[in-house]
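Below is a typical protein record.
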Amino acid sequence: MTPASSRALLFDELMAEVTAATERFDHRAHLHLTWLAVRIAGIPAAIGLVSDGIQRTARYAGMPQKYHATVSRAWVELVAHHVAERATEDFAVFIDRHPALLDKRLLTRFYSSATLASAQARTGWVEPDLAPFPWQSIDQVRFEDSDRSTT
């Protein structure tokens, strides 16, 4: 089995798990799938797993234009950030701890509409243009602190 086919199989298994009760793939189910992917595969692999799976699903549904590379990756990174902050074995507990993730418009805190609407963001990764993600702010402070200590 190729890495791509095993990734597709894992995505299909995760999709089946999160849609079993409702048979819908709404925003909460998307978050649940992403949470599972991050916990099972880790952040870098989860980005590929979720992004490729959603892109494949959109193509299969005859709506390839629905796939958005930056949005898919940004949601994986946001979920992963919160998973790393405080791990739990229960998605319901996770989402209760991080209710802001249920806001579909959460990315507008970090991205302007124009940036998200751009062809570049739809087809590839674009960094936030309004505000850094929470972990980027922490990384920047660490970088600035280490830079000061070396001078």
